[in-house]
Write a structure and sequence with these properties.
Helices cover 50% and strands 9% of the residues. It has 16 helices and eight strands. The chain has a four-stranded parallel β-sheet. Helix 6 packs antiparallel against helix 7. The protein binds iron/sulfur cluster. The site of iron/sulfur cluster (SF4) has 11 residues, from helix 15.
Length: 438
C-alpha cells in the first residue's frame, strides 16, 4: 500500500529476520505456494517451495515425532529435516516459513514443536518465521504492507488458476493437457510476482495481463463437455485438502472416478481470520483502536484487489461463484455451529457444505488428517446437514499416511452422488463452455 508507492524497489533490510536467509515455504497448495515464494523474492528474500514429500521424508518425520502430532505437522517436519540433510545447505542461513495462530486446536503447537525438534538436532540457528492469523498474517516486520498485499494477490491468483484447472481437467481431450497449461500459468504468475514494481497499480496491471493470458490459454484447451458429470465440493483441513501428497491425490482420484471437483478456496481462510480478528477486538473493547483501523483498511484493500483480479473470470466462473462474503458461510453454519461459540475450520466446513448444497452440487467430501479436531466435530454434524438438505451425500476422508482402498471408497461415494443428482432440489447453474479463442 503506502510502502509500495514509496519504495520503488524495496528490499528487506539487514535487520529483517529473513535477510540473507534461504527461506523455504511449505508446499501447501500447488500454484499458491510458488506464488508466495515469488512475492518473497520480490522483497529480496531468496525463497522457494520445499521439494515434494515422499516416503523418505515421512520416515524422517517418524523418527522425531511420537505419532500423536497432526499429520500436516509431520509432513512439514519431514520436508524441513530432509532439506537440512542436503549437502551445502547452511542451517544458519536457512529459514522455514510456518504460519501460526492460537486457534481452537493444535495448530498453535506447530511452531513450538518444530523449534524443539530443530534445537534437539542442533539446528538452533535455523529460523522459523511465523506470520500469525491473529493479525491477518501482517506481522512480517518492516515491509509488512508489501508482504501482506503481495501475498494476498498471489493467493487470489493461485486460487483462480486452480479453479480453471479443476473445471477443465475432467473434460480434457488430451490427457495431461490441462496440467501443462496450469503449470505454464503458474510459472508466468511467479515471473510477474517476483519483480519489484513502482506502485501497487503497476503490479496490478501486470497481474491482470498475466491472468488474462492464463484465461485465454485455458479457453484454448480442447475439452469435451459432459453435463451429467457430478460436481463434488471439497472442504476440510486446509493443508491436507490442498497438499496432494497428504491427501494421496484425492482430487485426481475423484476425477478418475467420473466426477469434477470444486475445491474450497485458500482465500476463504484469510477472510475468516479477518472476521475473527474483528470479533476478538470487539470482545476486548478495542474496536476503535489503531489495530482495528489498520485491519479495516487491510480488509477493504483485500476486497478491492480480489474483485479486480476475479472480474477477469466472471464468465469462466459462472456456476462456480464463491459466497460474496465469508459471513454467508458462517450464517449457513449457524444452525449447526454458531461462529460466536465455535471457532476454526469446522465452522467453515459445515457452512460451506450447506452452501454447496444450495449451489446444486452433487456431494461434499471433507478431507481431514486423522484425529483432526475440526474433522471430528464436522463429521458429527454432517449427518444433520445432509438430512436437512435432501440427503446430499457428505463424507469424511481421513489421512495419516497409511494405506486404504481409497479408490473403492471414492467409487462408492460417486455412486451416491449420482443417485442424489437425479433428485436434488437445487439445480446447478450451467457453466460456460468457452469457445476456443485465437
Ligand atoms: S486443524 Fe486439525 S490437523 Fe490442523 S492443527 Fe488443528 S487439529 Fe491439527
Amino acid at each position: 500500500m503506502r510502502d509500495l508507492k514509496r519504495n520503488e524497489f524495496w528490499k528487506v533490510p539487514r535487520t529483517h529476520p529473513l535477510y540473507g536467509k534461504k527461506t523455504y515455504i511449505p508446499r501447501m497448495a500447488e500454484g499458491s505456494a510458488q506464488a508466495v515464494a515469488a512475492v518473497l523474492r520480490s522483497l529480496g528474500i531468496d525463497a522457494q517451495v520445499v521439494p515434494p514429500s515422499n516416503a523418505y521424508t515421512m520416515g524422517l518425520a517418524g523418527k522425531y515425532s511420537s505419532g500423536d502430532e497432526c499429520y500436516p505437522l509431520k509432513v512439514t517436519l519431514g520436508d524441513f529435516l530432509h532439506l537440512l540433510e542436503q549437502p551445502g545447505l547452511d542451517p544458519k542461513k536457512t529459514a522455514f516459513f510456518m504460519p501460526t495462530g492460537q486457534g481452537p486446536c493444535r495448530f498453535g503447537q506447530y511452531g513450538p514443536f518444530l523449534k524443539s525438534v530443530l534445537a534437539r538436532l542442533g539446528y538452533r540457528e535455523t529460523a522459523l518465521f511465523q506470520p500469525s492469523c491473529e493479525n491477518g498474517y501482517s506481522n512480517f516486520g518492516e515491509g509488512s504492507n508489501l508482504f501482506t498485499r503481495g501475498v494476498w494477490r498471489a493467493i487470489v491468483s493461485g486460487d483462480a488458476l486452480l479453479k480453471l484447472l479443476l473445471k477443465s481437467r475432467p473434460y480434457e481431450i488430451e490427457a495431461g493437457a490441462a496440467d501443462l497449461v496450469h503449470e505454464e500459468c503458474v510459472e508466468e504468475l511467479c515471473r510477474v510476482l517476483e519483480v519489484g514494481y513502482s506502485s501497487s497499480e503497476s503490479q496490478m496491471i501486470a497481474l491482470e495481463g498475466c491472468l488474462l493470458r492464463a484465461r485465454s490459454r485455458f479457453r484454448k484447451l480442447a475439452v469435451q463437455s459432459d453435463p451429467g458429470r457430478p460436481l463434488i465440493g471439497v472442504v476440510g483441513e486446509i493443508f491436507c485438502r490442498l497438499n496432494e501428497f497428504s491427501n494421496r491425490d484425492l482430487v485426481r482420484r475423484v476425477e478418475n472416478a467420473g466426477a469434477e471437483v470444486w475445491m474450497n478456496d485458500l482465500t476463504e481462510w484469510i477472510w475468516y481470520t479477518n472476521v475473527d480478528q474483528f470479533r476478538a477486538l470487539r470482545l476486548q473493547g478495542r474496536q476503535f483502536s489503531l489495530e482495528s483501523f489498520e485491519a479495516h483498511i487491510r480488509n477493504y484493500i483485500q476486497h478491492k484487489d480480489e474483485q479486480a483480479l476475479l472480474a477477469i473470470f466472471r464468465e469462466d466462473f459462472r456456476g462456480y461463484e464463491e459466497p460474496r462474503h465469508v459471513q454467508e458461510v458462517l450464517d449457513y453454519a449457524e444452525p449447526y455451529l454458531p461462529s460466536f461459540g465455535a471457532n476454526g475450520e469446522m465452522v467453515l466446513n459445515v457452512g460451506k457444505a450447506v452452501y454447496f448444497a444450495h449451489k446444486g452440487l452433487d456431494g461434499v467430501i471433507d478431507i481431514s488428517p486423522f484425529t483432526c479436531m475440526n474433522g471430528i466435530v464436522s463429521e458429527a454434524i454432517y449427518p444433520r446437514v445432509s438430512r436437512d438438505h435432501a440427503g446430499i451425500p457428505i463424507r469424511n476422508f481421513y489421512f495419516d499416511g497409511t494405506q486404504s482402498d481409497l479408490d473403492r471408497d471414492i467409487g462408492i461415494f460417486i455412486e451416491l452422488a449420482k443417485s442424489y443428482q437425479c433428485r436434488k432440489p437445487w439445480p446447478r447453474v450451467a457453466p460456460v463452455i468457452a469457445e476456443p479463442t485465437a
